[in-house]
Design a protein that fits this description.
There is one protein chain. With 173 residues, the chain is an all-alpha fold. It has one domain. It has five helices and no strands. α3 packs antiparallel against α4. Keywords: Membrane, Transmembrane, Transmembrane helix. InterPro entries: B-4DMT-like, MFS_trans_sf.
Length: 173
């Protein structure tokens, strides 16, 4: 199973649980609807942040060179989009039978609500990834050294021309 699909399934299920809890809690304490919603969304975001942090730490430990790390941004973006659309669709289906769940129409659920969920998952996870990378990288003594003859990226190295000039002797005028 790919990274983004696993994450997307987990966060889709988690968002459906959050919405079910939200509906039940708001029906029990109607005057606290805003506070309940804010706390549940914050908890959801904290889970994404924590998972992103774990991803960032493990990626930074596995690949000391930042240029060779996995593209976690794309994995988390796809996970967020998948979670948003799937959780919106599932919430809409549950809302057809369970009237205490606050859902809109199908189009709103798979577009507007899905975009909110995708953005929440993506931003929280990427902040966690960046934090994980940073905490691992700051403990390293210095930058990883390039090996001699490591020219696999010579065509994209903008400083390659400068380095070659520095190794040649300077001519007398």
């Amino acid at each position: 199973m790919s990274k983004w699909l696993l994450r997307g399934l987990v966060f889709a299920a988690l968002m459906v649980i959050v919405r079910l809890l939200q509906g039940a809690m708001i029906n029990a304490w109607e005057t606290k609807a805003g506070l309940i919603s804010a706390i549940l969304v914050a908890l959801f975001a904290l889970v994404a942040l924590a998972w992103g942090y774990v991803d960032g730490r493990s990626d930074a430990r596995r690949n000391p060179d930042p240029e060779r790390r996995d593209d976690l941004a794309m994995a988390w973006l796809l996970a967020g989009l998948f979670a948003g659309v799937v959780s919106g669709l599932v919430a809409w289906l549950i809302g057809m039978f369970y009237q205490n769940l606050y859902v809109e129409g199908l189009i709103n659920e798979v577009t507007t609500f899905a975009a909110f969920t995708a953005l929440l998952v993506f931003l929280s996870a990427i902040i966690g990834v960046a934090l994980g990378h940073w905490l691992v990288d700051r403990k390293r003594p210095d930058e990883p050294r390039r090996r001699e003859g490591d020219d696999d990226r010579a065509d994209t190295d903008v400083f390659a021309a400068v380095r070659e000039d520095q190794t040649q002797p300077v001519e007398n005028r």
